[in-house]
Write a structure and sequence with these properties.
It is a single chain. It contains 5 helices and no strands. 88% of the residues lie in helices and 0% in strands. With 156 residues, the chain is mainly α.
């Protein structure tokens, strides 16, 4: 299995989980926490906050660190955020849920930046388009499949 194929598999997992979070956070807020629209908006903003706060420092980190370690760390960060979000639901802590959602988003940001930096290091310039497509296709599939699936699941 090539580096690009392993990255594509990891990309599918992390983007699939991220899409579940993007769709589920408003649903959990409304159904579990009985949150009003303002709170739901704040929670969705918390997910975007990770991109806003993480992009520049993580970009510097990607330029100065071992990329393999960052990819592995990013998945652990996202997973820890997911576990913390689940724990906060059971603890009925809306604030903890918001922090966990933000934390999980940091993992997605770090993964994306790291993966995109690995591609040109492992593929010849004439193979960049195909390699980039290989690691981006899982994201686009997740963008389509997850909201559709969760919508069908909730409706049922």
């Amino acid at each position: 299995m090539t580096t690009i194929n392993r990255l594509a598999g990891a990309a599918f997992g992390i983007h699939f989980a991220d899409q579940i979070a993007l769709v589920s956070v408003p649903l959990v807020a409304a159904l579990v926490f009985d949150a009003p629209a303002e709170t739901i908006g704040i929670l969705v903003a918390c997910q975007s906050l990770a991109h806003l706060l993480g992009s520049l420092p993580f970009g510097v980190l990607v330029d100065r660190s071992q990329l393999r370690t960052l990819v592995l760390s990013s998945t652990l960060i996202s997973f820890a955020g997911f576990l913390a979000a689940a724990a906060s639901i059971f603890a009925n802590s809306l604030f903890g849920f918001a922090i966990a959602v933000t934390f999980s988003g940091f993992g997605v940001v770090l993964f994306t930046l790291s993966a995109l930096s690995i591609v040109p290091l492992t593929v010849a310039s004439n193979g960049l388009a195909r390699a980039n497509a290989t690691i981006e296709i899982p994201r686009t599939i997740s963008l389509f499949i997850v909201p559709l699936s969760i919508g069908i699941l909730i409706a049922g």
